[in-house]
Write a structure and sequence with these properties.
alpha/beta, Urease, subunit C, domain 1, TIM Barrel, 2 domains, nine-stranded mixed β-sheet, eight-stranded parallel β-sheet, 17 strands, globular
Amino acid sequence: MSDTDADPVDLVVRDCTVVTPAGRTPDAGVAVEGGEIAAVARSENLPDADRVIDGEGDVLVPGIVDCHIHNREPGLEYKEDWETATRAAAAGGVTTVVGMPNTDPIVDRPERLELKFDRAEASAHVDFQSYAVVTSENLDRIPALDEAGALGYKIFLGSTVGDVPAPNDGEILEAMRAIRETGKRLGFHEENGEIIDFYTEKFKAEGKNDPIHHARSRPVIAEREAIERMITFAEETGAKVHMFHVSSGSGAEAVARGKERGVDVTAETCPHYLWFTEDVLREKGNVARIQPPIRDEAERAKLWEVGVDGGAVDCIATDHAPHTDEEKKVDDPFGNTWEAISGFVGLETEVPVMLTFVNEGRLALEEWVRRHSTRPAQVWGMYPQKGSLQVGTDADFSVVDPDLEWTLEDRRDLHSKTRVTPFEGETFTGKAVTTVVRGEVVYEDGEVVGESGHGTRVNVD
């Protein structure tokens, strides 16, 4: 029973099944004091609190960490900004996000990283971090970007939104050596740019302009080759590397081979690669255009087998990439794909997608938590402050209803500034119902209730 002589803690959430990668505890909950976890215990043993939330039998998990979003600020706020991106995160059960560096200007020097952090401190609803980009022009700034607090680094190997030029292979080797000295990790948009450019120009010349031709212009070999080349470079330099948005089973196999060789390579995949096949491009057109593209059924099945079930994929992340309806050609979704842009929002559908897989028996609850919370925090140096429910760590957690069946009937119900998504019309089983960031309830009862600016930068060594 609670100790009635002790002062009440700030918050108790009780009557949940608490789930971590280590297992699940029914009829339990957490106590929060001063923004930190004060206790994880059976409900009857939790202390008194100034506020008590009854979980009503739902599932409580460590806060979801999305280590791959495009928040678009600074410079592209017409698509999204820190406030709207993190509002969507809160509504989706996500407590920490990591922004990508292909903003305007690109995050390639300390003062630009500091600008990104300052903008986020002013308006974010959940906690955040950011990567710094590596190009041919800023190899000498890698130590300074480390000192400025970058979570890690990113290189864009293939053409992508923002047209950030890729360094040459010699420069990548030099960057890996410099980043190894910081102790941080280097991630890649891993597509072979020469292959992509060749097929893009070939298809344009041949008048192949359908959305499926965008996918065909970025074949699986472009991803697989880039993964294998970067793993070979990491093997040579001793750098820690990460493969963002692995879209194919063949790519996951390449990651697995690198792990078997002892290379410190980690990888993520995204809910859309596990949920859809390339048929969605025939059904929904450029709305589902993304890069790397959504693959065929054989590659999706292999991604599940090797990446998820086999363990080659460490993390789940969204590649949340907001664009306007006009940029996505929503009014003409099967129009000339070369005039459309790649990417779509995902912060509010990632938890429902993964919980649906849990409901279908494709994934254990514990394994979902490991891939979507604990492991991303470990890979990027934020654990145990994030991704755990350890006493003394940040009180970040989400309560999810794993049995709630619902359909995203209208994308306009989402909280991002722009809301194009192929998940409109899809039916899910499971949803976040309460989101808590450092002890503050930021989402409950279907509403974002946290204050803009509550989110803060995650400090990393």
